[in-house]
Amino acid sequence: MDGLLIDSEDIYTLVTNTILHEYGKPDLPWSIKAQLQGRPGPEAYALFASWAQLPLSKDEYYAKQSELQRQHFPSSQPLPGVPTLLSNLSEAGIQLALATSSHSANYTLKTSHLSSLFSLFSNSQRVLGDDPRIKAGRGKPAPDIYLLALQTINATLEAKGSGEREIRPEECLVFEDSVPGIEAGRRAGMRVVWCPHPGLRTEFSGREEKVLAGRCEGESREEDEELGSAEGLGSRLRGWPSEVGDGWGVQLDSLDNFPYERYEIVVK
Q: Which of 54, 126, 148, 227 has a Cα at 20 to 30 A from 101?
C-alpha cells in the first residue's frame, strides 16, 4: 500500500529525516530505506536503529515518529494510475485483497480521507500488519501475508455458495513497490508486479531481474528454510523456487496505463 497505492512512503521519509536532522544525522539513504520498506514495524526499527545510532530509546523514537505521522499521514494521496487501476479491476470482476504491513492505527490515518478508493477492498479482504492471524516474525519477506490475503478471497467465494472453485496461488497477481514484498509474493507462489519508487529503482539498477525473482533478500539455504513458501504451508506451488528471468515478475515505472491484456483482463 505505502508507496504503491498512496504516496505515504515519501511521508515516511519526511518523518524519518526530520528526526535524523534533529540530532545532526544525514538523510536516510536508499541503501537503508530499501531494507525497511514493506517490513513489519519492529523489524524495520531494528534495522534503522542499528544504522542511525540515535541517542533515543525505542519508546522515545516511536513517540517522535508517531507525533509527526499524525501530522502528515492525513495528507496522503493516491499515486498516478491507482484509482483507475483499482476501479477497472473491480469492474472486470477481479477479486481484490489488500495486504499491508501498516498497523490498524496508521492505516486509518493514511486512508480515512480516501474512503472511496479503499472501499474497493472489502473489510473481510484487508490484511493489516497487526492482524493476529500473522504470527510474530512472519512479516514480509515471508509469504504469510499474501497467503492469508488469498485465504480471505477464497473464504468470500465459499460463503457466496456459488460453486466457484478456489483461486490458486499461481492465479494471483501481487502488486508491490518494496523488495521484501516482491520476495513475499514470489514465496507465496504468485506472479508479481514491481512498481518501485524512483529512488529504489536507482538503488537496484542492474539487479532488477533478481528482485523480480525474489532473490535479493533471503538467498542462503538457511534463510530459505526459515522464511518458507506456500509449498511449506501446504499449498500447491508452481512459482517457487524461482529462477531469474522466469517470467513470473514484471517491472513498471507507474501504474498508469496498466497492461491488462498481458494478464488477459478485459476492461470496459
A: 54
Q: CA torsion sign, 14 to 5 to 176 to 169?
A: positive
Other CB atoms within a 10 A radius of the CB of residue 245 amount to: 11
For residue 52, what is its C-alpha cell? 542511525
Average pLDDT of the residues in 172-194: 96
Sign of torsion, CA 80 84 89 90? Answer: positive
Mean pLDDT of all residues belonging to the chain: 91
| Residue 216 cell numbers, joined | 535479493
Eight-class DSSP state of 78: B
Q: Computed over its alpha carbons, how large is the radius of gyration of the chain?
A: 18
Q: Which helix (H) or strand (E) holds 181?
A: helix 179-187
Q: CA-CA distance, 27 to 20, in Å (whole number)?
A: 7
Length of the chain: 268
Spatial CA neighbour of 167 closest among 152, 182, 150, 181: 150
Amino acid 220: pLDDT: 44
Q: Please, are residues 212 and 190 in contact by the beta-carbon 8 Å criterion?
A: no
C-alpha cell belonging to residue 102: 501498516
